[in-house]
Design a protein that fits this description.
heterodimer, A: 301 residues, alpha+beta, N-terminal domain of TfIIb, globular, B: 591 residues, Rieske Iron-sulfur Protein, Alpha-D-Glucose-1,6-Bisphosphate, Chain A, domain 4, Elongation Factor Tu (Ef-tu), domain 3, six-stranded antiparallel sheet, 10 helices, elongated
């Protein structure tokens, strides 16, 4: 059970993704953890998902009779993932309108474990300045290191952060282009532990590929990052699309695991932000205003 | 709880843990360090966190002069740990306050020593005073230092000269909380050893042994093997014992948030009569003629570590004759043990260069300002072109050395009267492939060369120019003609030769201080501010260096400086308070 002082009612009442529905074997027990609490989950032959508190009786990959479970947690399947909530769901899962466009391919790129807090992982997802250093020759390359000014706003209802006009030099803007060019990104943060990235599509200049990260907080300093791709690519097989994203995330993982402290400090004096960190500064302030305490080091009052 | 231990020097690494351009992850009392040796031999012991996002610097890149963070490429200088470059904002000089926490380091007995808050010097150990000490391999132990020390005092080993024997007796000569001296004797053979225990954390330690004598070459490996074997057995025994005891909670060292580095502690830090502060005291450690009519000076601190500089930075030198002059630092990256400046003898000068040439000698003490950088170097160019004329080489030498060290594409064009006028030939010789000398050219010939140099502008190329006014003007004009956009052309004048008409009178409104002041004819904005108690940093006070810049919120400025580009002047957003005035009756300034 969660330690009392680790309780964060806001986070507890939010929906969190546990895994991709497609990757679950029907009729079997799967084990995971959320906010320090061990959970079991599974699906029946009709793709109906179940989540329930772990118990000794249920062993991983053994058959389970879902009808016999006496206490299940709230469950939803959205964007191809099983979501649950440990408390009382306070709001709907955020909308990603592009997901239902008929010509998109939606797939789980990976679910990766990382020894870091959820907010550190989100902040890394929002960050462009590391592209030339961490994703060298893919998302960036030296000497093109400048982060140009961009816009960050918080929606009127304070539900969502939006970063727009984010331009960054990419050595291979697309498979079709011979040289580098600035690529435009838009970032949304509709949930303290989830973010959505829109990136100009190499195939259709008017549309964007969508990459989402849904962070499952195992505890305050361990996560699983679920990556949803919703792309317009028709040529490449799933395996190569996944491999690309896994390469990118595999480059971030050792950096994230070497961040200290692992929880995100919300006191603005603890780390040294620069103009390029506008979205991270907004994100930290937003977490602070929401009163989030899980996975962060709250600022002194 | 660790305060006593924090005051004591402890070994944190072996000298051999710091091979060429390596970064070592050191630990002491629960605190992590990034430990690295610069190419000049200096051992840096730093807090193991990048100030930006907390990534361990022990996974960073040691380039021999600076440590570069893996995450966003922030660079920190040898010795000072001050940030010298933030790649996300290539046009900006990082704020001086971005400076990592450093810890003292001493290299002795083949070990690196440090402490969080040492009291006193690291004491010399009599038995290790010889030059032939022999450090053993460090042995990590999962047990508290105290428990390890309790076992170490009974450590039995063979003297090096009788390593295969079994009959030695070890005698404890002395011991303390964190070290013990032992002597092993077997017949005629005797070896003295000192063992230190490094408290890594509450339940972890490292045994670091040093023998007083280096064994004969053929015995080195058997001796190391002998102690490895015995100390490993000791480790197993201590760990076994510790596993039965209550496990202590790990230490939780406090990581202080970054703060402005404190300036060297000095008593006589008062602003000079003209209001330009010179908080540093340096000694001329070397003075030499680096070229015909050009004297070079190495300045070393007598008041603590010199502050971090970046390429393009200058200092104010307060001379014995009361004059204040600006000189660019010529140092390469990480050369933080001294500042090197060069001064050209100008017969027609106001006495600054004559004083530096004639009066200032090796051993003299000078007051200088902290380095200021109003001429920052971008490092994101696909090609950087430097154009130096005469003594204008000084800031560009620092820049060119920086790019050269990082292997970034550049050419340094150096225009001089003759070979004898080439300053710092020994340094230029080390980067000969990037330097092109242009000797003894007329202004027309110079312009012809410049047209050739600047003819093929491409986006992301940058030009840096420094030299005499006419040459600088010509270079800017040619660059403009050949399609170089203004933001790609960076320049620094030695002085402002514009005639300044200061007969106007106007009002200044200080938005942040909520004050209204009248600037009288014959007075500058800067002087008016000072007279009213508002201190603004300044340096050259003739509109060349850019230090006293302020933002304009309202009103039309009348520019008299040579710092701002034409585009910046037209935009009317900033002015130099030391020379510029107002065309409108009133200026609202962001002060």
């Amino acid at each position: 059970m969660q330690n009392q002082n680790e309780k964060d009612p806001i986070i507890e009442n939010l929906w969190h993704a546990l895994g991709a529905l497609k990757e679950i074997d029907a009729g079997q027990v799967n084990k995971t953890q959320l906010l320090g609490q061990p959970l079991c989950y599974g699906k029946d032959a009709n793709d109906v998902a179940f989540v329930w508190p772990a118990s000794e009786r249920h062993k991983t990959h053994t058959p389970v009779n879902f009808e016999a479970l006496n206490r299940c947690l709230p469950v939803q399947v959205r964007y191809g993932y099983v979501w649950t909530c440990l408390g009382t769901p306070s709001e709907e899962i955020f909308d990603i309108p592009e997901y239902v466009e008929p010509d998109r391919r939606n797939l789980n790129a990976a679910s990766m474990g990382v020894h870091v807090s959820a907010p550190r992982a989100i902040e890394n997802f929002l960050d462009m300045g590391h592209f030339p250093y961490v994703h060298t020759d893919i998302l960036g390359v030296e000497p093109h290191t400048e982060v140009k000014d961009y816009d960050v706003t918080v929606s009127a209802d304070a539900c969502e952060i939006l970063a727009t006009r984010c331009l960054f030099y990419q050595p291979m803007a697309s498979q079709a282009s011979a040289g580098g060019a600035d690529v435009e990104y838009v970032y949304r943060v509709p949930h303290p532990y989830c973010s959505i990235l829109y990136k100009s599509s190499p195939l259709d200049a008017a549309r964007q590929d969508v990459i989402c990260i849904f962070i499952q907080p195992l505890d305050q300093e361990h996560i699983r990052a679920h990556m949803l791709l919703s792309v317009l690519d028709v040529d490449n097989p799933d395996i190569s699309i996944r491999a690309f994203q896994q390469t990118i995330f595999g480059q971030d993982k050792p950096i994230l695991e070497n961040q200290f402290p692992k929880r995100l400090p919300l006191d603005p004096r603890v780390e040294t932000p620069i103009r390029a960190d506008k979205s991270a500064i907004t994100y930290r302030r937003w977490l602070r205003q929401k009163g989030i305490t899980y996975g962060v080091i709250p600022a002194a009052a | 709880m660790n305060e006593a231990a924090q005051r004591i020097w402890h070994p944190i690494a072996s000298s051999t843990d710091l091979p060429f351009r390596h970064t070592y992850h050191g630990q002491l009392l629960g605190r992590e360090f990034a430990v690295w040796r610069a190419d000049d031999g200096y051992v840096n012991v730093w807090e193991n966190r990048c100030l930006h996002r907390g990534v361990r610097l022990s996974i960073g890149i040691n380039d021999g002069t600076e440590l570069k963070c893996q995450y966003h490429g922030w660079r920190y200088a040898n010795r000072t740990a001050g940030c010298t470059y933030i790649p996300a904002h290539p046009a900006d000089a990082p704020a001086r306050t971005i400076c990592n926490q450093t810890y003292p380091a001493i290299e002795r007995y083949g070990l690196i020593w440090s402490a969080e808050a040492p009291v006193g010097e690291l004491a010399y150990i009599e038995v290790l005073s010889g030059s032939a000490v022999f450090p053993l391999r460090g042995i990590a132990v999962n047990a508290p230092a105290k428990l390890v020390m309790q076992k170490l005092v009974t450590y039995q080993f063979q003297p090096s000269g009788q390593i295969k024997g079994q009959t030695a007796t070890s005698q404890l000569l002395s011991s303390s909380d964190d070290s013990c001296h032992l002597a092993a004797t077997d017949g005629a053979h005797s070896t003295t050893a000192v063992f230190f225990v490094q408290p890594v954390d509450a339940g972890r330690s490292v045994i670091r042994g040093v023998l007083a004598e280096t064994p004969a070459d053929d015995l080195k490996r058997p001796v190391l093997y002998h102690h490895n074997q015995l100390l490993t057995a000791l480790r197993e025994q201590v760990e076994q014992e510790f596993s039965t005891l209550p496990q202590p909670a790990p230490f939780a060292p406090v990581i202080a948030p970054p703060s402005a580095p404190t300036l060297p502690d000095i008593d006589f830090d008062s602003p000079s009569p003209r209001g330009r502060s010179a908080p540093l005291r340096v000694q001329v450690s070397k003075k030499w003629m680096t070229a015909l009519d050009i004297a070079a000076f190495d300045l070393v601190s007598i008041t603590g570590q010199l502050p971090t500089y970046q390429p393009g930075a200058h200092i104010d030198v307060h001379m014995p004759n009361g004059l204040i002059r600006q000189y660019s630092l010529t140092n390469g990256p990480g050369e933080t043990d001294k500042y090197t400046i060069a001064v050209k003898r100008e017969a027609a000068s106001g006495g600054g260069s004559l004083c530096m040439h004639g009066q200032v000698r090796e051993g003299d003490v000078l007051a200088i300002s902290e380095p200021r950088n109003n001429f920052p170097l971008r490092r994101d160019a696909i090609q950087t072109v430097f154009v130096a004329g005469g003594i204008g080489i000084t800031p560009l030498l620092a820049m060119s050395r920086t790019l050269h060290h990082s292997g970034l594409p550049q050419t340094l064009h150096y225009f001089t009267q003759s070979r004898d006028h080439i300053a710092f030939p020994e340094i230029l010789g080390t980067m000969a492939a990037t330097v092109q000398h242009h000797l003894n050219l007329s202004p027309e010939e110079t312009a012809g060369q410049l047209r050739g140099i600047l003819e093929s502008y491409k986006p992301a190329m940058h030009l840096y120019v420094c030299g005499p006014g006419p040459m600088l003007e010509a270079t800017r004009k040619i660059a403009d003609d050949l399609g170089w956009p203004e933001p790609a052309v960076h320049f620094e004048y030695f002085k402002n030769t514009n005639e300044i008409d200061d007969s106007s009178q106007f009002e200044i409104n200080l938005a942040r201080s909520a004050m209204t002041l009248q600037v009288a004819a014959g007075k500058t904005i800067l002087e008016t501010l000072r007279e009213n108690g508002i201190e603004l940093p300044s340096s050259c006070e003739q509109g060349a260096c850019g230090t006293c810049v302020v933002d304009i919120l309202e009103g039309e400025p009348e520019h008299h400086d040579v710092f701002l580009s034409d585009g910046e002047k037209q935009s009317g957003k900033r002015l130099m308070t030391c020379v510029s005035r107002a065309k409108s009756n009133r200026l609202v300034l962001d002060i």
